[in-house]
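User: Show me a protein chain along with its predicted structure.
Assistant: Here is one chain, sequence first, then structure tokens.
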Amino acid sequence: MFQSIKYFGYNTIDNNIYTYEYELVDSDFSCLVKIKDHGATTPIVAVIQEYSKRKLNVAANLIKCFQFQEKEYGWSIAQQIVWIEKHQPLFTPQLKADTQKYLLLI
């Protein structure tokens, strides 16, 4: 399960296109996640991409990421969900529904 995520920085690729780098630590692995993006990028995107790629439970690990960010930065889970609903197409209606199910358990 998700443990933590740490931002390492970004590199410019082209005009206003950046690669953001995060270290994602899970109880079973750790990895460096690089995300190409034109604008707003968060650790949430890194979590969605990495757990999807590994065919692991994205919603459950996303909740762990929300909790981590709430503890580390004071961003409530509700604030994080509102933000990603507005800015991240990776947070699909299905992923939102799955995430809501896990929120009921905590």
